[in-house]
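Justification of resources, computational component.

The compute hours requested in this renewal are based largely on the per-chain cost of generating structure records like the one below. Each record pairs the submitted sequence with a full structure-token output. That output is archived, and it is also reused by downstream analysis tasks.
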Amino acid sequence: MKKSAYDIITERILDIMAKGTIPWQAGWIGGQRPSNLISRKPYRGINALVLGIAGYNSSYWLTFNQARKKGGRIRKGEKGTPVVFWKWLEKEIEDSATGEKRTARIPLLRYYTVFNLEQTSGIEAPELADKEQISPIDAAQKIISNMPQRPAMVPGRPSYNAKTDIVCLPEFQRFVNAEDFYSTAFHELAHSTGHASRLNRPEVMESNFFGDPAYSREELVAEMAAAFLCNSAGIAPATIENSAAYIQSWSKKFEDDKKMLVCAAAAAQKAADFILNIRFEN
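The structure output for this chain reads:
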């Protein structure tokens, strides 16, 4: 049986985790978000995680055909990395009650293969554009300050209460360092994006208990979103947990539900985009 795109990506993440690495806590290699060399568009969601920890110093990726069009080639023996995309199919659906037919767009996950610039020959790396010089900590604070519809933030144990729409955080001085403070803040603010007034995620608005599937999904979304935000600011994501038991627990969940990783990463990207107040065209 041919493997699905979910299977391909999940297996790759499980391989990484088997080596003791938690993908959403690793950060981008070199601090640059993975992007396509030709379009310069950044990879998002699960693709950003997979490519960001692939082990290359270059942040640029391209397909086999793109390498040829650039006058270069993929070096012999190099293996590509899968990235996923949504293909929309139009399907006619009949309403069982009324018999009326309508056309619906059904999302179908597909994948293709890309190669890092370091896996090619005959292609020069583009010059990096000058960026505004801002310290990572200032950038992290700016992200929080500029979040649209930001919930109230009060002192207390790290948490988010959907009923009151309040984020609790310990005082800054209680954290080991600034990175830990902002990582924790990003995590709780990511939860808050699930509020009905924002992205309205069921996992946030409905009562869920510790350990149940919905609770686990929302925690994964918040962890991934926090990692995306940390990388946007240029700070290292906080290591929430790094034990073998933690990795084994998530690995078991991913093995049982092959769609969990891709769907959580997509929701996390939406949460990060909301906090950053940016929109991307699909």
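The mean pLDDT is 90. The chain is about 40% helix and 20% strand.
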